[in-house]
Design a protein that fits this description.
The protein is of the alpha+beta class and about 200 residues long. About 20% of the residues lie in helices and about 35% in strands.
């Protein structure tokens, strides 16, 4: 992942300062620290939650050995200098039990999921910054459910901070998420969750 100019050498704050700030943030927002920048995200709407629940059920049905952990805080980017709260992190059952603190190491996470919001910076945050952070952390699959474009995008094969493969599907398509996730999503239901 190529850092934005000036962010790797001079992030907006130290990671410890960010973690302290995130602990004290009001419940109406979620704070993240991506690419050296503080990101403030409002709480998601009801349709966002419905999509996450839909995906959680699909994962559990097809991969009962795994769990999709909603709103999981992860240490991301190449040197674990970022902090992202994934809409979902797919990992083995009880994977995060032995990790302490709010921000878990991403090792062992098979897939991260983001569902776009309708706020002003969702394009940058979900399509670029978080994608690159997850690739930098070498998470094998990044699944993006883009509500604005009504598409499901699957990113795979992270190398050198970038996903090498990107496959996009319109709502209604059959999406085969490859190994190590190995699930199939019939996405017709996502049409019910559009505005």
């Amino acid at each position: 992942m190529t850092p934005s100019p000036g962010t790797e050498a001079r992030p907006q704050m130290a990671i410890d300062d960010f973690e302290e700030l995130a602990r004290k943030a009001p419940e109406s927002v979620t704070l993240q620290f991506i690419d050296g920048k503080l990101v403030v995200k409002p709480l998601p709407d009801q349709l966002h939650g419905a999509i996450v629940m839909w995906l959680l059920e699909r994962c559990l049905q097809q991969r009962p050995d795994l769990r999709l952990y909603p709103e999981q805080g992860l240490k991301v980017e190449s040197y674990r200098t970022g902090r992202a709260r994934a809409d979902g992190a797919l990992a083995p059952l009880d994977h995060f039990v032995r990790q302490e603190g709010e921000w878990a190491d991403p090792d062992g996470v098979l897939m991260t999921v983001e569902v776009t919001s309708h706020d002003y910076d969702t394009g940058l945050r979900d399509h670029i910054h978080k994608r690159d952070g997850y690739a930098g952390a070498e998470i094998p699959v990044y699944l993006l459910i883009d509500r604005n474009a009504e598409k499901v995008v699957v990113y795979t094969d992270p190398r050198d901070g970038e996903y090498q493969t990107r496959t996009s599907f319109p709502y209604g398509a059959t999406v085969k998420v490859p190994d190590p996730v190995a699930i199939t999503l019939e996405t017709e239901k996502l049409k019910d969750y559009t505005r």
